Structures are given as C-alpha cells and as structure tokens.
UniProtKB/TrEMBL annotation:
Catalytically driven reaction(s): [protein]-L-glutamate 5-O-methyl ester + H2O = L-glutamyl-[protein] + methanol + H(+)
Family matches, as PROSITE patterns: CHEB
InterPro entries: CheB_C, Sig_transdc_resp-reg_Me-estase
Keyword Hydrolase (UniProt): yes
Alphabetical GO biological process terms: chemotaxis
Protein name, as recorded: protein-glutamate methylesterase
Originating species: Luteibacter pinisoli
GO cellular component annotations of the record: cytoplasm
GO MF annotation list: phosphorelay response regulator activity; protein-glutamate methylesterase activity
CheB-type methylesterase domain ranges (all copies): 4-190
Enzyme Commission number(s): 3.1.1.61
Keywords assigned: Chemotaxis, Hydrolase
Annotated catalytic residues: S14, H41, D134
Amino acid sequence: MSTPFPQAVVIGASAGGVQALREVLRCFPARFPAPVLVVQHIPRDRPSGLAALFDGECPLPVAEAEDKEPLCPGVVLFAPPDYHLLVEDRSTVSLSRDEPVLYSRPAIDPLFESAADVFGAGLLGILLTGASSDGSAGVAAVRREGGTVWIQDPDEAVSPVMPASAIAFAGADAIVTLRDLCRRLGSFTP
C-alpha cells in the first residue's frame, strides 16, 4: 500500500540521535518531493558537522540551514549550532537566537511548532531518541494542526525520555521502531 507524500517532514532527536538519524535518513526515497528539516541537539560552541557526516549516506542532498534559505523539495536541512530552525512560510526557513528551550538551542519544539503553523495537515513529524522533554509541545502542535506524528518506540531508543514524554503529553499517530519507520518512509509514492 502506498502513502501520499507529505508537504514537509520535520525530525527531532537528542541523545543517541546521530545513530538513529543515520538509519532514518538512509531510508528516504531518492526522489522524495518534500523538504526535510532536522534538529539534533548539539553543543552551541562548536561546528556541528552533521551535514558533512550525512553527505553521501543519505540519498537526498544535505546541508546546514542558513537564514532565509529556500525550502527545496528533496533537500535535508540541519539546524546549525546555537540557532533555532524555524519554518517561516511554505518557501523559506529562518534562524532564531531566541532563548533556549529546555536548555537547547537548537530545540525541537520551535521547529515542530512553526512547521505545524505553516503546513498543517501536510506535515509529518518524526521524534526520535532523546534525554529531555523537548519535542513534546511540538508534537502536540503538529497533531493539533492535523499533521501526522511518528515517535520512536521508547523501548528501542538509546534514551527513552524524549519519546516517552511526547507520547504521554500528546500521543502519536504511530509508535515505531526504526525498522518500521524505514518501511513507512519507503511506502511513500508520488
């Protein structure tokens, strides 16, 4: 069974997230026609290196987001260190130095909330492993606006706090293992 493509995908991860992202990003179809925006909690005081790490491992082009950068179908943008990544409108992202959320900047909640405001029911939110409750309010926003949320099974997560917190706070459309998540991503068809 095929699933229609979302208009945009947002992914949040923290502790254990690099390995989880490595598995998930490899599963996107090569001609995925929606932008993919990623927040991985990273230290504020040094380069992230995430785009370089995933370049060549992901079938899609990857880059670190810049302020006012266009949202391009089939491109993965990572939040840079010390900036929140926000969806400004259907065609542009912005970077913000607003206060950290639960001690994190970049944080997951601002990305998910801004994307939910813009894309509504066309948004797919994916929350992975992590050691804080960042992402819970964002998951609630995505679901409130009619979007779809898949959350990594806390029993599988390297750090179960973040997925468990989001499930308890806002629920999920699906609680998935990384293997199931990859299967679901592979089911998208134009």
